[in-house]
Amino acid sequence: MKTFREIMSWVIPILVGLLIAFGVRSFWFTMVRVDGASMEPNLTNNERVFVFRTDKLKTETIHRGSVIVFDAHGEDPTATESKDYVKRVIGLPGDTVSAVNGVLKVNGKVVDQKYISESEQSATNTVNQVGNWTSLKQLGDRQGWTRQKTVKVPAGKYFVLGDHRTVSNDSRYWGFVDNDKVLGVVKVPFWGNATKKQNINTAWKSYFE
């Protein structure tokens, strides 16, 4: 049985890759290669994950805590061409978001960040002189966002962070992600690590402490 599972652990990804090569991307899911360390430890560099397309699947809703893929071109000023970013949604349209000494609050409620270490929670504020912020407008003014600087997440947009806050290039530095830029919601496949599946696929179900 163990040998069968080992064989299937590499056969299934190959089969899925072949399906995608024959055009699955144009339907309801695709696969994306994670580029970089910004979602460690939950997603690692070069790891391949499923992305369920929100424009094709009406049942695939973006929640607070969902991990999404979006085209950073036009969102992050440093992305001079189309490039997929993988980040976690922290704030939905209409939400307020604050972060003080690593404690994230959305609409005044403390976010349960058990999916990352305490050191990475603290890094939300300590790296690159981001500092504490009590409103998104305060953060935007301090970081010099070139687009909307509002107290609440604007309609049709999201506030996102990487799990590896020490290195992640995310909404702290350039602002909101437009819904039109979102490709879909990330899911770790069923043969993946159990902890990763919990932290990526279902963390949104227990978003607040």
Q: How is this structure best described in words?
A:
The chain has 209 residues and is an alpha+beta fold. 24% of the residues lie in helices and 22% in strands. The protein is built from 5 helices and 10 strands; from the N terminus they run αβββββββααβαββα. It has helices at 2-21, 118-126, 136-143, 171-174, 194-202, and strands at residues 29-33, 48-53, 67-71, 84-91, 97-100, 103-106, 109-110, 157-161, 177-178, 182-187. The strands form 2 sheets. Strands 1-2-10-3-4-8-9 form a 7-stranded antiparallel sheet. The radius of gyration is 17 Å and the shape is globular. The N and C termini lie far apart (40 Å). The mean pLDDT is 89.
First-residue to last-residue Cα separation: 40 Å
Cα radius of gyration in angstroms: 17 Å
Helix content: 10-25%
- Class computed from helices, strands and strand pairing: alpha+beta
Q: Indicate the low-confidence ranges by residue numbers.
A: none
Mean pLDDT: 89
Write down how many β-strands occur, each being a DSSP E stretch of 2 or more residues.
Answer: 10
